[in-house]
Amino acid sequence: MERLQYEVEARGAATARKPVLVGVTASGNCEVLVEAGGAPERCAIDVHTAAQGFGPIWQAVLRDFGERHAAGGLKIEIHDVGATPAVVSLRLDQALEAWEDDDA
Amino acid sequence: MSNKDTNWRRGVASKAARVARTADLADGRRVAAEHATALLERVIEAGDRVCLEGNNQKQADFLARALAAVDPAVIHDLHMLQSVVALPEHTALFDKGIAREIDFSFSGPQGTRLASLVEAGKIRINAIHTYLELFGRYFVDLTPNVALIAAEAADAAGNLYTGPNTEDTPAIVEATAFKNGIVIAQVNELREGLPRVDIPADWVDFVIVAPKPNYIEPLFTRDPAQISEIQVLMAMMVIKGIYAEYGVKRLNHGIGFDTAAIELLLPTYGESLGLKGKICTHWALNPHPALIPAIEAGFVESVHSFGSELGMEAYIAARPDVFFTGRDGAMRSNRAFCQAAGHYACDLFIGSTLQIDLQGNSSTATKGRIAGFGGAPNMGADARGRRHESAAWVKAGEEARQGRDVMPRGRKLVVQMVETFREHMAPAFVERLDAWDLAETMGLANPPVMIFGDDVTHVVTEEGIANLLLCRDLDEREQAIRGVAGYTAVGLGRDRKKVDELRARGVIRRAEDLGIAHRDARCDLLAARSVKDLVRASGGLYNPPSRFRNW
Questions:
Q1: Looking at CB atoms within 10 Å, which of A11, B58, B320, B503 has the fewest?
Q2: What is the C-alpha separation between B320 and B303, in angstroms, rounded?
Q3: A93 at the B interface (CB within 8 A)?
Q4: Radius of gyration for chain B, computed over Cα atoms and rounded to the nearest angstrom
Q5: What is the pLDDT of residue B443?
């Protein structure tokens, strides 16, 4: 098991809200947990992955995620159970859409 | 030499001599199963072209075993003709020196074995064909001397009932029987009063009741439970961004979970977009269980099939308005006709592949595997001989011309649908197809490409749709492909500015450009979530093979 830690620039700050966990847990091939807390212009992401040697791909996936979403000030934890980048991106988008939704 | 001196009947004489050698083995057309190998040793001669029936569904497996048991000292150097190389006996023929060369279409399960036989110099692969191409050659330069076929039942006269899995039988028998060849059928049973006659006795030389029913693989059954959200997302993009966009009514789906997801979204997502009756009404398709909900929802008017699918018999028989059925109620499939239908009468083919290069060429040949093509190239190619018009065909043609002052003609939509990474993080997009290496191994002049890039009109991945019709040059085509290639090396190598420009022009369309939210790509959108749901949707008529039953 490899643990990778990233900080990416976010498109904007996420709306402040009480720290809660959002995401798609126990979904079989990838889990994403989102909580508030951290610098508002950056998003901190912790990746737990079984696959070794895909650091550059993770970097690119997360950079694009930061460009897509106002995820500044969020802490995100990803448990990838052998998920492809496509699945990881989808889960991240779903988690952020849920975060923004619950916010309204 | 005058015509009088020429012997124009060598084939007739050869056939008569071969049949005469079987006098002590055959009772009329009937030969006992234990004499099968002896029969083959009498009627086959060294160097013969032997067609062994077997596709990815029905297999003349008993006759394959009987052939693998002949004495290689007597029967050798055979030239095998086969739609599919699927069984261990098929490759054993080469290991034992019974056969030396082969012309075939597809070799799914034996692909690796085939590659090692080539390496060992035990087999000569003359060519890998599409089904239609191979059938075509049966009538030109590869006419079989002997055909070994499979049928469900025979009557005392030797008429054959092939039932729902008629498949390749008519094409093989016609080519063999009418050119002095010998047709030997393995049947599951003798039956008086066949439900219908699929092959007349007059075209059949010998019938053997096999000790066990012929093997049939349920190849087209996909458990909806295994369809992923990514596949749902891609299927939504295909339905909204391609099927609705072009008004695709007549089509063929390749095999796999990607296309099963489309089939299962028609009655839900497709219906919600108001597409019932506007898309997917007429199909050249095997009876996919995943199509049941769309049929039940009234989406589908007609389905013609290459072969049948285990468990679908009663459902098909109960839906004669949709499927092609005989007087007996059972389906009549026919691979040759369905391939022709898929090529000429369909507006769209969509399928998956293992590798796509920067120009959109695709291949299922990967390192150490000689997989072949099956029917994909017939479906996945623009039909240059097509003349009749349809809205989808005309629109695709217009896009391909983009206002250039050339003779207007339509285009077939050929869609490649892949996730950017397959399992074990194998990238679907590559700079160079493994097919190049395979060409070298096999001594081919050209790499065995399944679908050529210039026939592909759209590439769909989880990242979006690349419309290759709208690309103005090869460089744009490359960037359009890179632009949907995700985080593969090919995708990461994109020119981001050019890709943005292609997106602004609608050459690349992302899910959000189509008004599809990622969060809506949920598996509960599928009209069936399990095989049991499919059974329920069929009103209990679908009877899945036991391996798909987990209840």
A1: B320
A2: 10
A3: yes
A4: 25
A5: 84
Round to whole Å and give the CA distance between B527 and B505.
34
Please say if the pLDDT value at position B539 is more than 50: yes
How many domains does chain A divide into?
A: 1
Using only C-alpha atoms, chain A has a radius of gyration, in whole angstroms, of: 12
**Distances in Å between the alpha carbon of B539 and those of A75, B80, B466?**
49, 44, 39
Contact A85 B229 (CB under 8 A): no
B519 vs A contacts (CB less than 8 Å) = 93-94, 97-98
d(CA B448, CA B225): 34
Distances (CA, A) of B248 to B158, B240, B282, B456: 44, 11, 9, 16
Of B230, B233, B519, the CB nearest to A97: B519
B357–chain A Cβ distance below 8 A for any pair: no
What's the domain range around A38? 2-100
- CA dist B537 and B539 (Å) reads 5
How far, in Å, CA of B48 to CA of B415, rounded? 40
Say whether B492 and A85 touch across the interface (CB within 8 A).
no
Count of alpha carbons within 13 Å of B392, Cβ hemisphere only? 24
d(CA B236, CA B219): 24
Q: Which residue of B has its CA nearest to A94?
A: B519
Element (H, E) at A76: strand A74-80
ipTM, two decimals? 0.86
In whole angstroms, what is the distance from residue B507 CA to residue A53 CA?
33
* Mean pLDDT confidence for B42-47: 98
Length of chain B: 551
Give the model confidence (pLDDT) of B397-441 as tens digits.
Answer: 999 998 789 999 999 999 999 999 987 788 999 999 999 998 888
User: For residue range B151-209, what is the model confidence (pLDDT) as tens digits?
Assistant: 999 999 999 999 999 999 999 999 999 999 999 999 999 999 999 999 999 999 999 99
Minimum Cα–Cα distance from A87: chain B residue: B230
d(CA B407, CA B384): 14
- Min Cα–Cα distance to chain B from A51, Å: 9
Task: Give the pLDDT band (50/70/90) at residue A26.
Answer: low
Query: Residue B372 in 3-state DSSP?
Result: strand
- In which band, very low, low, confident or very high, does the pLDDT at A87 lie, cut at 50, 70 and 90? confident
Question: Roughly how many angstroms between the first and final C-alpha of chain B, as a whole number?
Answer: 75
CB contact under 8 A, B463 and A86: yes
Cβ separation B519–A57 shorter than 8 A: no
Percent of chain B at pLDDT > 90 equals 88
Cα A66 from Cα A9, distance rounded (Å): 6
User: What pLDDT is stored for residue A94 in this prediction?
Assistant: 81
Query: Average per-residue pLDDT in chain B?
Result: 95
Of the listed ranges A85-89, B132-136, B195-199, B451-455, the one predicted with least confidence: A85-89
What is the dihedral sign for C-alpha B478, B480, B482, B484? negative
Which of B195, B60, B83 shows the shortest CA–CA distance to B132?
B83
Task: Check CB contact under 8 Å for A97 and B517.
Answer: yes
Place of tokens 């699945």: A87
For residue A13, what is the domain's CATH number? 3.30.230
